[in-house]
What we know:
The structure holds 2 protein chains of 2 kinds.
Chain A: H1 2-13, H2 16-19, H3 22-40, H4 45-58, H5 76-85, H6 89-100, H7 104-108, H8 113-118, H9 121-132, H10 137-144, H11 151-161, H12 166-178, H13 180-191, H14 194-197, H15 209-226, H16 231-246, H17 250-274, H18 278-281, H19 284-314, H20 333-345, H21 352-377
Helix pairs in contact in A: 3-4, 4-12, 4-17, 5-17, 6-11, 6-16, 6-17, 9-10, 9-19, 10-11, 10-21, 11-12, 11-21, 12-19, 13-19, 13-20, 15-16, 16-17, 20-21
Chain B: H1 3-9, H2 12-44, H3 52-55, H4 57-64, H5 73-89, H6 95-104, H7 110-119, E1 123-125, E2 131-133
Antiparallel strand pairs in B: 1-2
Amino acid sequence: MDDILKLFADFWSNTGFALADYRYIIMIAVGLTFIYLGIAKHYEPLLLVPIGFGILMGNIPVFKGLGLAIYENNSVLHYLYFGVTSGVYPPLIFLGIGAMTDFSTMLARPTLMLLGAAAQMGVFLTFLGALALGFAPNDAASIGIIGGADGPTAIFLSAKLAPDLIGPIAIAAYSYMALVPVIQPPIMRLLTSKEERLIHMEEVREVSKLEKIIFPIVGFLLCCFLAPAALPLLGMLFFGNLLKECVVAERLAQTARTALIDIVTILLGITVGASTQGDVFLTASSVGIFILGAASFGVATASGVIFAKIINLFSKVKINPLLGAAGVSAVPDSARVVQMVGQEEDPGNFLLMHAMAPNVSGVIGSAVAAGVLWSFMN
Amino acid sequence: MYGLEAISHHNGWAISIMGILIVFTGLVTLSLLIRLFPKIIALIEGNGQSTPQSMMPQKAQTQSQKQEPVINSSIKEAVQQYQYLISWMGEPFSLPRLVELAEKRGLVRPHATISQLIHASVIQPDGTGFFLWHAR
Lengths: 378, 136
């Protein structure tokens, strides 16, 4: 009988119920919230559902030494997490994004690219904020890139500069990306008048196939000569786009924009979620990262909108300043938000197509910003 | 170390200013190059000088392929209403502006009507993103 009781006591001491503390419970609640937001509210479900479930997986308290937890060298999750820590997954996601992105609107109206550049102000202002709060320069640069609103870029830069902060930075970046429809509209309404929101955009010209094929090559060469550290991200982005536009490699483009990006998104979501193990994740610096991330997102949105208003001061053809909010690179959510806010004022105002121009240039801008920060920190 | 002292100590101001300048330089240069694409393509395709004429091959092509409008009784009234609006706006015109004016003047279901006019080739694209009126 004693043996049975001893065995049961040993077994019990190894169960999650005995090993759990309040930090795991908090993180499990966070994971459940992510899953709820993804499924019930449709906020970025393709990201929040895998990340949410990953958080649950990472916060099952396990006996250390069994090779189960993500931070144990010989665990399966650790091997999968290698794609994050080594920076392999983000460029593969960029390949898929390139293969599904149509740059036509941006090519037809390149002026709107400046809004994508302006929104990167959020990255650098948050970098300053993080330095002021006492973060080390490498950590501050990784936190700043959250303002680019680009999850893969944030993960990529964190993997290179601040591997210990990948979890909180990735969770903050993806959380705020999912909350674009909640965070951006109040800032957009605050910074624009009704008359400005009512501005209609002119039809754009038709872009030829040859222009679309030349663009990824010229864009890649220019951006990577300027910021070589952005090579892994921008190389894959433009390569994916070339596969799409050249037509003759349609099978490769199809794979990149469907199966490949889906597989990598699953692996990235699950492992990033699992990296938020309560005892490692719940620290004062994680809280600081979340606060700075929110500020970063707000500043990026505001910078884009304000810059669009500045352009209007000097331009004969007015642009709707709401488009500036799409300069953050949450594709295509921030463009959808621009359309939504514009149509609240005038249901006949169709801004979605025009908002895609700053939106995709924001992707390029945030990758260049990441490359610049990486090179400065080295 | 915290606050402005930390920013200065880690060279934060210079990094941020240079960072923003590089991002802007990259995207501004790219946008200028993109503006040149039509001219470069015209040269590649051997269209001679990149004159304004060669910049607008699509417009010329579109106009040469212009279709005859088909005005039946169901759109006759709409043609009269919209012809007045377009004579006021001038040509070429943009569709959002036309919708806006139609709504201001209280015309019923402007999107659907304009769609009918496009299908009937009364409104035709000019190849540069604007539209022309073809019912005279």
